[in-house]
Design a protein that fits this description.
By secondary structure, the chain is mostly helical. The protein contains twelve helices and two strands; from the N terminus they run αααββααααααααα. It has a two-stranded antiparallel ribbon. α5 packs antiparallel against α10 and α7 crosses α8 (214-240). It is globular, with a radius of gyration of 26 Å.
Amino acid sequence: MNAEPVWRKRFLNGLNRANGWFEALGFAWVAPLIKWAMGESRKEQAKILRQVLLVPMIGIAAFVLIWAALAPQVQTSLGTIPGPVQVVEQAGNLWQDHVREREKAAAFYERLDARNAKLIEQGQSDRVKHREYTGQPTYIDQIFTSLFTVGLGFFIATLIAVPLGIASGLSKTFNGAINPLIQIFKPVSPLAWLPIVTMVISATYANPMDWLPKSMITSAVTVTLCSLWPSLINTALGVASVDKDLMNVGRVLQLPTYKTITKLVLPSALPLIFTGLRLSLGVGWMVLIAAEMLAQNPGLGKFVWDEFQNGSSQSLARIMVAVLTIGIVGFMLDRLMFALQRAFTFSANR
């Protein structure tokens, strides 16, 4: 019997190490599929593939079939509910709209560059102008706008929630002082925060930067106010749950506070901190869509509202494209946070 080639052994070892990352990112089927294709214990790999790939695909296929069967039965003021075929068609149309808009932008900048080059040749450099293309944002542009906004709001929420959570977990006095505020503000709807945030931002952010308009700041701050609570609560719980013997060791060694936090508290509390961050990001993504719809701020929420107001025969299908996009993006954000959790914590399965 021939020995297994060295390259094959190294490849399989690397694949086994990467399998945890595939699972974290939602691609648990990749490693067993490659192993099955290589002839590596096919019966075992087929069993894994059936669980991580075939069963989810059957669930998705069943949902699509039920959707296709029931959608034509529901009549609305804009016609019947669109089925999967119509939604896929509109997704293609939205992509084509994006491509055409990018071609228009490229043509605009080509004409602008040609005009400026001609003026420079004629010695009229003072008449050279640089303008930004002012076409309508496409569906793809709005996706990235929403992603940037939720990222900004989540970043601000993390900067506030994690330090407060650490202080709350370390000090019973501080926890007693802040806990009533958490219980009061945690249930507040983003629809209640939005008018207050809008007025405060309008009053304090008088000279907005081009890349950071008031509407985006308003949405981001609303996301912050609604999404910081899961991170704060889970951080406090994680810090308070640190092994008391470990804390006693820090006292015996007379470690300064910052070293106690960075060397003892944070490594032990990271799994729960990341759980809070994952929850906060999910909450923030849901809040953002509602805030964009209500305040008519750029992003996916505004796209949904505009299509609803448009009332064309294609509007329902486009709204459903947006609904699926929101769900898929939310799933990807959660998987990204889970991958970071696996990278920075010892207890990845917690």
